[in-house]
User: Fold this.
Amino acid sequence: MQNDVQAADSPAEGELPPSIVKRADGVFFKGDAAAAACLAGVNHYFLAGAYFAGLDYAVFIRVLYGVGAELPQNLKDQQLIRFAGSVEPFQARRRELYKSVRIVNGEAEYYFEPVFFNVADMPPEPARLNFDEFVADMWVKGIRFGIDAPAVKATIAAGRVVRLIAARRLNATPGRDAAIVEVSQSIHRSNAPREMANGRFDLHTFQNRFPQVQPHVKLLRKVPRSPGLRGYELSGIPLEPPEPRDLELSSVAGEGTMLEQAGGVEYLVSAVEGFISVDAGKKISIGPKIISREGVSVRTTGNLQLTGEYEEFGEVQEQRVVEGGNITIHGDVFGNIVSRGGNIALQRNLVGGSAVNAGGNVAVKGVASGAVIQTKLGEVVLGRAESCVISGTRVVIGEASNCEIIADEVLIKSAEGCAIAARRIEVGRAGPRRQTEMLLFPLVPDTAKYDQAIAEHTERAGRFGAQAQKFKAELDAIAGEPELRNYLTLATSVRKQEVMLTPEQLALFQKMAVSVGPALRSVGKLSLTVKEAKAQEAVALEQAALVRKQKETVIGHGRCTVQIVTGDTIVREMKFNPDLGAPYDRAPKEIKARLRGSTSGIAAIFAGSSGSVDWAANSPSLPPPDPTSPPSPAAS
Assistant:
């Protein structure tokens, strides 16, 4: 036993590790020593057969591995950190009391049971384990980290027989990835029902589905990544945590945003006023256009009343209303699209809904079926239309079946069973659909008021012409009297100084003038009356010509052509009153009733099942002059 003590004590008293200081009042780690140096010092003592008596295991582990509870306040920032009372030799006799451990999945299992000293030729002598010795023995056996000191101490003190998890591996704690958090409430949607002016709530419309922001508003903030905590195997080998992922705030910065640094924090800030949109790549953009990818339904948006341009990548469900300007829908539309202007562009199908534009174009790239497509001022372009009501300034369709169409101009490649009315109709192939015949109605303006105005102006011109002719006859009768004719001839010669009168002749000439004075006054009055009547006649004729031009303009160049008639097709004129506005600006029910209503009594331009149609409106020319009417001022 004496040799064991000396063997254990000699290395401890020889070359002492520089990281450990042993004094009468305890054993200390140097405060400025590295953890690796402290580990080397502890390992020196344990392998030399010593142990630390009065070990403070929490301080011991904190200094060696940097984990566990913080150092007490009286030990922080000290030159020496006390962790044990003394260094004692670990006698071989006592080392035999400690058994091996069983290590499974990072846990060291130890079986605590009563222990005895073996004495030759004597009964075994009871003994007790010691926690400080337990730590030293475990170290030598490879358990250099993670001893459950409270549990082991309590088990040893109680002398219980138990299989205990005496030590555990410490798994690495993952760090926190960099993150982006919202800063402004402006980017939040409000799905509360919209309150109307009368105080009631519209349960079909959300309060603020598409938020709008002002310039220079902080929207998002970057939270930097934070490293994880190192773990340790039972052997003391470190377990490094995975590297936290970093991200750049610029990865979500889209058009209309910018990055700013404030107080060491990076922010995403709005650069312009507009609507917030998030694309598939999670980029935030701000602009005048509203972009949605969720579709329009009761669940997502409700009905929409928008102030800016709108682009939707989802579907518009039945009975949902999207109202705005410049609307683009990439999904199928089953609801109603209403635009105050700009364009409506439906990239897929319009089924059972409507697309109505107050002033702009409507385009459906897919199929329009059972729908209403109308524009008050613009063009309608459809690939294929089935059982639709369509109206607009100009309508262009690839294939149309069982539709009611009215416009200024209609161009269709193939039409079956449709009723079409327009000023100008061009159809490639036309025919019936099942039992529904093909109806074509060239729109012809009602010009009755122009005809009446022309007749009134012509009648007035004739009346003034007759008056001028009557007064001219009276003038000629008076001017034909010999005395007046002689006076006028002599007066003309005197005025031109062709004849020089003597005083006696001059007296006679003056006497003659007094005699024909009343006749001269009558001639002057009649001449003025004739001029006034002819001027009134010219004005009336000019007004009649102007009305004729207006009539020709209203009639325009109406035309109806069908290249190939493939079945029962009827072409009839349809009158409309141009003073009541555009003939196509009507409600769908009114359009349908007018085009499918009775047309009995109207003569057919064409009725047949084959051939072709080429009809043009006759713009009437000015009528030939009436030989009984008075001559025009130019002729006279």
About this structure: Residues 1-12, 201-208, 619-636 have pLDDT under 50 and may be disordered. The radius of gyration is 55 Å.
